[in-house]
Amino acid sequence: MPKPEKINGLWKRYEALRTALTGVGPILQGSIMKRRFKRPLPSLGGKKQAYGPYYQWTQKQEGKTVNVNLSRARAAAVSKAIREKRRVERLLIRMRSLSLLLLESSTPAVSRRSTRRPKTRA
Q: Is residue 57 a part of any domain in this protein?
């Protein structure tokens, strides 16, 4: 069994991660793309005109990829929600690994069985 100081330290780290989860805002899955297009304009003698930026949010819904066009303001809000989701996932990964360490160090393991010698026939 490890020392109680080690277990207390693990609990403190776990509590810090749990506290970090309390301030979670909206979370969304997916990614944002900022797109620009250049197209030739016949009225300008074939010179290319730049259009954009256009914002697209790509996500999976029911196993299918869905694209949603967004305004600049909504793209900023969705981007913040995507970052928040990634932060929550990183916190959960750390919490899972700490949980495993806590359980391994605070509960007894299975005792080993003695090895038996095979019976020999005479």
A: yes
53: preceding bond cis by omega (within 30 degrees) = yes
Number of independent structural domains in the chain: 1
- Measured distance CA(56)–CA(34) in Å, rounded: 7
Give the range of the structural domain holding residue 62, as residue numbers without chain letter: 4-106
Which segments of the chain does DSSP mark as H helices, in order? 4-21, 72-106
Cβ neighbors of 26 (< 8 A, separation 6 or more) are 77, 80, 81, 84
d(CA 28, CA 26): 7
CA–CA dist 76, 65 (Å, integer): 21
CB 58 within 8 A of CB 75: no
How does pLDDT run across 17-59, given as a tens digit for each residue? 999 999 899 999 999 999 998 888 888 787 888 888 999 999 9
Please tell me whether residue 26 adopts helix, strand or coil conformation: coil
Q: Which helix (H) or strand (E) holds 64?
A: strand 64-70
